Amino acid sequence: MTRYIDVNDVSKLIQEVGITRVLTSMASYVEQDYRRWHTFDKTARVASHSPDGVIELMPTSDAKHYSFKYVNGHPKNTKADLLTVMAFGVLADVDTGYPLLLSEMTLTTAIRTAATSVLFARFLARKDARSMALIGNGAQSEFQAIAFHEVLGIKEVRLFDVDEEATEKLMRNLAPFRQLRVVRCDSTADAARGADIVTTVTADKTNATILTPDMIEAGMHINAVGGDCPGKTELHADVLRRSRVVVEYEPQTRIEGEIQQLPVDFPVTEFHRIVSGEEKGRESAEQVTVFDSVGFALEDFSALRYLYAVSRERNIGTELDLIPAPHDPKDLYGMAIGSLHGERAAAAVEAAQAQTPVLIRH
């Protein structure tokens, strides 16, 4: 049987476990998998681009499990009251190929993206970081703000979005977090001024320059989330040139990330080298660090592993007859008509024969 988890199940999980614990647990799963980086089959995601968006498949596997995620990115969708990003995913058993889990991944991707951002920031941001600018206040923003507040100890978030209603929505949703100071700003520059961390999570599929060199201060950590496909960036190239840039999987980020603006020999560091201790995350308090986030299949693998474990533990979700289970695995046809008996079975055969073309030999 395949376990199925829908949107309501994930919502129930968040309500039962608590958003902070879910974020922390998912970040732990992601860290565990980055620590065994070399056990995974890795490939850049397969993308199908159109003028208004992109549809992608993100596969990976280790010796035990295989996973993939189907995900889109269509910034204009909100004009039709549709989500910009939606996704679903599968976790399967490598030995048999049988799917263990079929899950929604829209809510889950928002959580795993925020969890990954916090994980990278733990290694890259200054330990005394307490303020964060949040540029782009759409569907991802609450998860990012809550993750950095609850997991990393951020005390102040400074908000800006060209859509004022998005900022108002974010402020309403953050109101219950009374220990978090929320500041509404008039511009990106205003929001970034004095911030220890700057998170950019905008949606437009353009080569934008949300952050420019004059906004960057010594010691900042930049969590660049929104630039995640060819032709879509958020940082001025000179911001990257003055920073230490850390990526998930370099071959994919060269195509989709902020570094698509720069020559292929521009130096970057893959995160697994930092989490394993091969390299330091930050070399000095004054260094500017950038997480060039595009989302990698390993993180979805981790998220699906977490969902599968916690859903079984809490009995959340539904068991599906997704795969046939014939008495004789070589007799799939017998299973297809196995519920028909006697006259009904004979009638079914006659009906099939009546529709079979007759060969006429000349």
Automatic annotation (TrEMBL):
Pfam families xref list: OCD_Mu_crystall
Stored Gene3D superfamilies: NAD(P)-binding Rossmann-like Domain (3.40.50.720), ornithine cyclodeaminase, domain 1 (3.30.1780.10)
UniProt cross-references to PANTHER family, sorted A to Z: KETIMINE REDUCTASE MU-CRYSTALLIN (PTHR13812:SF19)
Protein's name according to its UniProt entry: Ornithine cyclodeaminase
Lineage, uppermost ranks: Bacteria, Pseudomonadati, Pseudomonadota, Betaproteobacteria, Burkholderiales
